[in-house]
Amino acid sequence: MKAAAKRRPHHVLRDAFGRFAASVATHAGRPAVFLLAVAVILAWAMTGPYFGYSDTWQLIINTGTTVVTFLMVFLIQNTQNRDARAIHLKLDEIIRSIRPAENKMIDIEKLSDEELDELAKHYEHIRLAKEERNRRRTDSAA
C-alpha cells in the first residue's frame, strides 16, 4: 500500500495546505505581483474623483487590503514554520555528523526560554574564556 493511501485525512489536508501556502508565498514575493498590487492601488486612487472620494470608495480599499493581509499572515507563517523546521533538521544533522560537536545542541529549539538563556550564558563564558586565552597569548608573545 502506498504511503499516501495510509495517510489520515487531516494529514492530507495539512500537506495540501502546506503546498498551497508555499506556492502562494513564492508567487506573492515576485516583482510582477508587487507591480499588480501597485496597479490596483493606482486604479483605486484614480477612481477617487469619479466616486467623489466617498466612504464606500475608501471602504473598498480598506476591506480589500485587510482581507488580503489577514490571509497572507497565515500563509506566510505556515511557510516560515516549515522553513524553520527544515533548517533545524538540517542543522541537527550537521551537528550529529561532526564528531567534536555537542549532541546536546540537537533539538534546542524545543527548550524553554530559560533553558535557552542558560545555554547562551554557557557559550558566552566559553567565548570569553577563549578571548582571554588569546589575549594572554598575544601579551606573552609581545
Gyration radius, in Å: 26 Å
Helix content: over 70%
| Strand percent estimate | under 5%
Total helical segments: 5
Shape: elongated
For the largest beta-sheet, the strand count, sense and barrel status come to: none
What does this structure look like?
The protein is mainly α. The protein folds into two domains: 3-103; 111-142. The protein is built from five helices and no strands. Helix 2 (9-28) packs across helix 4. The radius of gyration is 26 Å and the shape is elongated. The termini are far apart. The mean pLDDT is 87.
Topology:
Blueprint: H1 3-6, H2 9-28, H3 31-46, H4 55-97, H5 113-141
Give a quick rundown of the structure.
This protein has 142 residues and is an all-alpha fold. It has two domains: 3-103; 111-142. The protein has helices spanning 3-6, 9-28, 31-46, 55-97, 113-141.
Summary keywords:
single chain, 142 residues, mainly alpha, 2 domains, elongated
